[in-house]
Amino acid sequence: MTTADRTDRTEPDAPRGVVLRYFEALAAGDQETIRNSWAEDGSCWYGGDLPISGTWQGRDQVINGFLATAFAHLDPDREIGLKVTNVFGEGEQVLVEWDSWATGRTGRAYHEHNIGVFTVRAGKIVNMREYADTQHWERALVAP
User: Fold this and answer.
1) What local confidence, expressed as pLDDT, does residue 135 receive?
2) I want to staple 124 with a disulfide (CB 3.0 to 4.6 A). Which of 20, 26, 39, 69 is the partner?
3) Cross-sheet strand order for the sheet of 93-103
4) Are 27 and 1 in contact (CB under 8 A)?
5) Beta 54-57 vs 38-46: how paired, if at all?
6) DSSP string, 34-50
7) In the chain, which residues have pLDDT < 50?
8) Strand pairing report for 81-90 and 93-103
9) Neighbour count for residue 74 (Cβ, 10 Å)
10) If you write DSSP's letter for every residue of 49-105 in order, what string do you get?
11) According to the model, what pLDDT value does residue 4 have?
């Protein structure tokens, strides 16, 4: 994976810093930091009717369910990339835009533009809502 850009001087424990560190960990495959970024009772939501859709409740479900299911659809022998393109933060809310790309196990190219709204409390992600083109996700990573 390529490294997510980190061009600001955000305090590492501030919500924006927590979310950017999480994206850096995703890009690097740093499982310990990914896990430590989430509150034990954190949750994430992804729209649509996909294997990753719905609400994933609790850190273990987010990591071993949502993230593991998403990555299981990618070809691990091909490049998997992630680049943060924009970050907005106010209080405990952080909005992130990012590009992600890979090759699916289907053999088809995946290139997505995502938006996620994160809530961070006490240095941990407590909630994420991700918005993306679910039809592209399905065509590239699931459909026969």
Assistant:
1) 95
2) 39
3) 54-57, 38-46, 124-131, 109-121, 93-103, 81-90
4) yes
5) antiparallel
6) HHHHEEEEEEEEE-SSS
7) 1-9
8) antiparallel
9) 20
10) SSTT-EEEESHHHIIIIIIHHHHHTB-TTS--EEEEEEEEEETTEEEEEEEEEEEBT
11) 43
Query: Mind listing the pLDDT tens digit for each residue in 114-126?
Result: 999 999 999 999 9
DSSP secondary structure letter of residue 106: T
pTM of this structure: 0.89
The whole-number pLDDT of residue 127 equals 98
**pLDDT 10s digits, 6-32:** 444 467 689 999 999 999 999 999 999
Task: List the structure tokens of 22.
Answer: 């999480």
- Closest by Cα among 111, 130, 128, 131 to 119: 128
Contact of 79 with 88, CB cutoff 8 Å? no
